[in-house]
Amino acid sequence: MGFTLVELIITVTLLGVMGTMVAQLMMRQQRFFQRMSDQAQVRRELRTALSTMPTELRGVSSVGGDISAFSASSLTFRSTIGTSFVCEKTSSSSIDVPPINTARTSTSNWVVTPAVGDTVFALRHDSSGVSGDYWSAHRITAVSAGAGLCLTSVYTDVLLDAGKSRYRFTVTPTLPDSVVTGSALRFTRTARYELAQQTSGRWYLQRKEIQAGQWTQGVVVGGPFVAPAPSGASGFALSYFDSTGTTVAVGGNSRGIARIDLALRAQGQGGSDPSATIVTDSVKLSVAMRNRR
């Protein structure tokens, strides 16, 4: 039993209509899943940036001069890379610190080993009481390590810490007499957050720092973000305020900054469909400068 030409035409037409409907349904599903994927990616990038920047910025001392340059789209500051204390002051320009892996108590901790060009802040006691405490800034000019440093220090165990490497830092300017054995130390390195355009043409939030007198290549913190815009709707926007809530204008006194407001606007990849709406999301956060001395 065969089919007439009319029946074949009707069948082919129906199959075409059904195929078109199925294709459109699949395309809508693909767009839906792409949008959901972009939305998840956008929120993930925002969380990544929020888990990195505020933690680092809260350790900044604006009064201490940690902020060296600031604008609506970038921030250059001293980032804390480690802490320790003086286990021996060998001269007016040289201090030794305990090992980072002491057996009993962890006294030296850093994300990266302090290097030449970094800044160490030493807590000096110029007079009695808390009001006499002051952080003295010193640039590191030389770094050496050896197991023969701080051997008789009360902060290390003679037997359990034997053979462990300790560090000696030579600094400038010279250390005042009020920096003594037991004085706290804070190691910092100049870093910068800013938006940077990658080869893909998209903008990413990146962090770079100064090592050996040179800016390192930026490390991507998150993205892509909305491109910079003069209207203030950039993917990375910063606002600065003093302790009274008054805006600190760009080019003003960085030591007066008590709060930094961050606005992050991330966007999705957009997928392969140029007509699809690009997913965007934003978040705002205020970071108070904790170390106001």
UniProtKB/TrEMBL annotation:
Superkingdom of the organism of origin: Bacteria
Record key words, sorted: Membrane, Transmembrane, Transmembrane helix
Transmembrane segments: 6-27
Protein name: Prepilin-type N-terminal cleavage/methylation domain-containing protein
Organism: Gemmatimonas phototrophica
